[in-house]
Structure formats: structure tokens, C-alpha cells
Specification:
With 323 residues, the protein is an all-alpha fold. The chain has one domain: MetI-like (MetI-like fold). The longest helix is centred in the middle third of the chain and has 37 residues. It is globular.
Length: 323
């Protein structure tokens, strides 16, 4: 009678994930990774501070105008210093600076996140698709990327913004997105050229997977850190560029943004007259939002790149130092 050889023990963390509670193994593994990511966010001071600050500004932009007066209403005497009634004083026309600051948060964040999203989509589509497809498609897309890269960004955006001066925030968003996608596309193309020769990508092609499935399933997850980082810096670039254009008088002055507040304060000589409460708050808000996004980016680098994590050996319960 033959005796079956005992099976080798399966190491912890390997082998199929058992199905429990009705969830398939893949879904359970994804839930475990999500819990680990949230635990890392809670342990990252930079990530926590940046997320909380950004969330405050987003909530302020969404719900703040519901609790403030009309930002264009003349409610007080001109250039009145901050008081209990007007916490940030008034403008040269007697408008509430705090109401304008809260109302401008929505327009500024809309420009930043919309332009960042469009630039990120363009960079992913052109950089990743061209590198993975190859051939003439890659040559044409790479040539287009190089042409956009060599065009001076600031003069281009000034000329286009002056041409579409009355186009509203959407024109500003499109202009900023057009000049900010090429750099990320170049980086993503180089990374994709390295990934397309990996074994798992070649195996997916041998199995007959479509190009789009290879991009979505095999390539993009490995580029997530670069894509998210590029999106965050595109948002920062869009906010700063819009503020700069508005300060130069090239933005849409009918839309309330922090850049337009700086432009109006500069036109009415708020700096020379000592009305710091008019120009300092919008500039400070731009700096704080940019800092919060940078902190989030540093935290995401640690989350998505295990090499950047600081390993702290857990201390055993009940353990004591032996002298």
C-alpha cells in the first residue's frame, strides 16, 4: 500500500486567498491593500496635514458661499481695516474681502483640478499609448510632444490668454492644460518603453490580450506613482499660472479667483496704501494650497514606492530591555 507524501507547508502570504464572507480572493486582497494604505496615511504626518488642509479648502469652496454675503455687494466703507463685522476688512469699493476670498476659492480650485486632470489624461494617452504601440504612431506622438516641449510656455500662454481674454475660466483651463502635459508625457513614454519588454507584458501579448487591456491592466498600475505625482504638480502649476495671468490682467476679470483678487488689489494700489488685508489673504491661500498638495505628493511617494518607506521594527508586547 502506497502512502502519499505529506504536502509541503504553504508559506504565510502565498497561495490562493480563501473566499470568506462571499468575497472572491481578488476582492479580499484589494480590501487588505486598501486597509494597509489607509493605515499608512494615518501614520504619515505630511499626508495627514496636507489632506486635512486641502479638504478644508475644498469644503470652503463648496459650502462657503452659502453662508457668506454677496461678494460684489457694497456693504461697508472703502478700505476699512478688519473688524468684528468684517473679519478681513473691505476693498476700495466697500466690498467684503472675506466673502470674495471664499467665493474665489471655488474658481481657483476648479481651474487647478480641471486643468490638471486634462493635462494628465493627455500625457497618459500620448505617452503610454505611443510607447506601447510603437512604430509610426509612436514617432508621430513623440514628435508632437517634442514640438510642444520646445515652445516657450509663458509667452505662449500669455498670447493665447490675451486672444481668448473673454472666454471665461474654460478658456484658461484649456490653455494651461495644453502647455503642461508634454513634460509628463515624455517621462511616461520613457517608463513605458522600459515596461513593455517585461515578462508579464510580453506574456499578455502572447495570450492575445488587446492593446488597451495591456495598458489598463499591466502598464498603468506600475505607472500610478508617476501619474499621480504628475497630476498633483499639474494642479499646482495650473493654480500658479492662473494667478499669474490674472495678476497681469490677462484672465477673465468677471470670474472670482484669488488671482483676480490680487489683480484688483494691485490696480487700486492696496500695497502702497497699506491695505494688507486685501492682497495678503489670497496670496497666502495660494501658498497654503500649493504646500498641502506638495505634502500629499510626498506622502503618496512613500505609499506607492515601498523603497521610500521608513521601516520601524515593531516592539514585542511585554518585552523588556536586557542590560
Amino acid at each position: 500500500m502506497s502512502v502519499a507524501a505529506p504536502s509541503a507547508p504553504v508559506p504565510v502570504g502565498e497561495g490562493p486567498v480563501p473566499i470568506r464572507g462571499g468575497l472572491p480572493g481578488a476582492a479580499r486582497a484589494a480590501a487588505v491593500r486598501a486597509r494597509r494604505g489607509l493605515r499608512h496615511i494615518r501614520r504619515s504626518p505630511r499626508m495627514m496635514v496636507g489632506s486635512i488642509v486641502l479638504l478644508v479648502f475644498v469644503l470652503l469652496a463648496i459650502f462657503g458661499p452659502m453662508f457668506e454675503t454677496n461678494p460684489n455687494a457694497f456693504v461697508g466703507s472703502p478700505l476699512h481695516a478688519p473688524t468684528g463685522r468684517f473679519l478681513l476688512g473691505t476693498t476700495a469699493s466697500g466690498q467684503d474681502v472675506l466673502a470674495q476670498l471664499i467665493d474665489s476659492a471655488r474658481g481657483t480650485l476648479e481651474v487647478g483640478f480641471a486643468a490638471g486632470a486634462i493635462a494628465t489624461v493627455l500625457s497618459v494617452f500620448i505617452g503610454v499609448t505611443g510607447a506601447l504601440v510603437g512604430g509610426a504612431t509612436d514617432d508621430v506622438l513623440n514628435l508632437f510632444t517634442n514640438v510642444v516641449l520646445v515652445i516657450p510656455g509663458l509667452p505662449l500662454v500669455i498670447i493665447v490668454a490675451a486672444y481668448v481674454h473673454s472666454g471665461g475660466l474654460m478658456a484658461t483651463i484649456l490653455v494651461i492644460a495644453f502647455i503642461s502635459w508634454a513634460g509628463s508625457a515624455r517621462v511616461l513614454r520613457g517608463m513605458t518603453l522600459s515596461l513593455r519588454s517585461r515578462d508579464y507584458v510580453l506574456a499578455a501579448r502572447v495570450y492575445g490580450e488587446s492593446t488597451w487591456r495591456v495598458i489598463v491592466v499591466e502598464v498603468l498600475p506600475n505607472l500610478s506613482a508617476i501619474i499621480i505625482s504628475g497630476f498633483i504638480f499639474s494642479v499646482i502649476f495650473a493654480i500658479l499660472t492662473q494667478a499669474g495671468l490674472s495678476f497681469l490682467g490677462l484672465g477673465d476679470t468677471s470670474s472670482m479667483t484669488w488671482g483676480n483678487m490680487l489683480y484688483l488689489a494691485q490696480n487700486d494700489e492696496a500695497l502702497t496704501s497699506g491695505a494688507w488685508w486685501w492682497f495678503a489673504p489670497p496670496g497666502l491661500c495660494i501658498a497654503i494650497v500649493g504646500t498641502s498638495l506638495a505634502l500629499i505628493n510626498f506622502g503618496l511617494d512613500e505609499l506607492l514606492n515601498p523603497r521610500l518607506r521608513v521601516w520601524r521594527e515593531p516592539k514585542a508586547k511585554g518585552s523588556e530591555d536586557v542590560l
